[in-house]
Design brief:
3-stranded antiparallel sheet; 11 strands; 2 domains; TIM Barrel; disordered N terminus; binds flavin mononucleotide
């Protein structure tokens, strides 16, 4: 049985009430229904230690890099549980790297180069390493083949208790393997029909992710999506994602029927996060209106900080987006060049609308503590409002 973290959440509650412990918390042996998605190992460790569950976004790591990250995490977490997230899309152009590269039109490559030239972005030095936001090297993340290699690495770690897939239902053999190893499997859903497909495919829980979220995101907002998904997949547990950065939003998510929350953007501006200083500064300064849903990263709509780069992809001369994984292959080097050039206008980063709520650099533990305190205050405020014995207006 994993250790349960003992983050105190009593001090704001005169009656000494603790945070709600939902069924999924019990199954995982975690104290708080707070799941932290991050590509950064320090965030994963900090949130798992604070009583939630850190989930490492593995997309973009090579198997060797992932092994290094998981060694580091396991050394620090001991028996505390953590999770891994991969991206195995339902629909993906198939082929060898060379064949896929040949499918990228020359006109697209030339246009990307024209935009970079306009801003004086230098080519990469010969020995450049990856890392714009977890994206690395020449590997094409997101192929089922690479994800299987990543999972084979991850399965060696006994602390791994959760596996989540984005952009599709995890394949049946992977689900079976996870279940055999006692790992709970989840999948992200932006629509009710995605959630129903995940349930039919055998997942243990669904992450209902709304429009306001960072990263790949659909059209339906969290407030509207979560109760529909909860009803559609009952009795499967649902985690609410998108737009959640504080305790009031956690209370709202649980009120909508979710068993917990899955947050990504709120960790980006923490000292534990490995986001480079320039995009981090831009994230700290940004308001909720400064994000945009763009297909620039992968060809599928994803929310990110708006910048001159995302604007260029909306301009009249833009040749348009390519399908998965060609768009990612087209821009991979450009994104690395932009990150390395530290160009203030072009710099961007995937993030959700909660970016407007994250205006100071607080560490993960303080954020979790703040979430707990605000949750307790909120629930008590709501409970007190029920007790007020006021005459009902005629
Ligand atoms: C920088 C960034 C990268 C992301 N990459 C992934 C990913 O690789 N896999 C995934 O399942 N979700 C990814 N997401 C989405 C998160 O898992 C999560 O659903 C989302 O951040 C929740 O909404 P929030 O950003 O409002 O907290 C990413 C989000 C961000 C902000």
């Amino acid at each position: 049985m994993p250790k349960v973290a003992t983050l105190s959440c009593r001090h704001n509650s005169p009656k000494g009430k603790t945070f709600v412990k939902t069924e999924i918390c019990r199954r995982l042996g975690i104290a708080l229904p707070i799941f932290a998605f991050s590509h950064c190992r320090d965030v994963v460790v900090a949130v798992s230690k604070a009583g939630g569950l850190g989930v490492l976004g593995a997309a973009g790591f090579t198997p060797e890099q992932l092994r290094r990250e998981l060694d580091w995490i396991s050394e620090r977490l001991g028996d505390f549980p953590f999770g891994i997230d991969v991206i195995m899309p339902k629909k993906l152009e198939q082929g060898e790297v060379g064949d896929l590269q040949a499918m990228i039109p020359e006109g697209h490559k030339a246009w990307v180069e024209t935009v970079l030239k306009r801003y004086g972005i230098a080519p990469l030095p010969a020995n450049a390493e990856g890392g714009a936001y977890g994206i690395s090297g020449e590997q094409i993340g997101w192929t089922h083949d690479l994800c299987r290699q990543l999972l084979d690495v991850a399965f060696a770690y006994p602390g791994l208790k959760v596996m989540v897939n984005a952009l599709g239902t995890p394949p049946a053999d992977i689900l079976e393997e996870c279940h055999r190893r006692g790992i709970l499997v989840g999948a992200l859903a932006g629509k009710v029909k995605h959630a129903q497909a995940h349930k039919a495919g055998g997942v243990d829980f669904v992450v209902a992710q709304g429009h306001e979220a960072g990263g790949h995101t659909g059209e339906i907002t969290t407030m509207v999506l979560v109760p529909q998904v909860v009803d559609a997949v009952a009795p499967l547990p649902v985690l609410a994602a998108g737009g959640i950065a504080g305790g009031r939003q956690i209370a709202a998510a649980l009120a909508l029927g979710a068993q917990g929350v899955w947050c990504g953007s709120v960790w980006l501006t923490t000292p534990e996060s490995d986001v480079e200083p320039l995009p981090k500064q831009k994230l700290l300064a940004a308001g909720s209106g400064d994000t945009v849903r763009s297909r620039v990263i992968s060809g599928k709509p994803a929310r990110m900080l708006r910048s001159a780069w995302t604007d260029a992809w909306e301009a009249k001369d833009c040749p348009g987006f390519l399908p998965l994984p060609l768009q990612g292959m087209l821009v991979q080097e450009a994104h690395l060049r932009i990150a390395k050039a530290r160009h203030p206008d072009l710099a961007f980063y995937p993030c959700g609308q909660t970016v407007g709520l994250c205006n100071d650099e607080r560490d993960c533990r303080s954020i979790v503590r703040g979430m707990v305190e605000e949750y307790v205050e909120t629930v008590e405020r709501l409970a007190a409002s029920m007790n007020e014995d006021e005459a009902t207006p005629a």
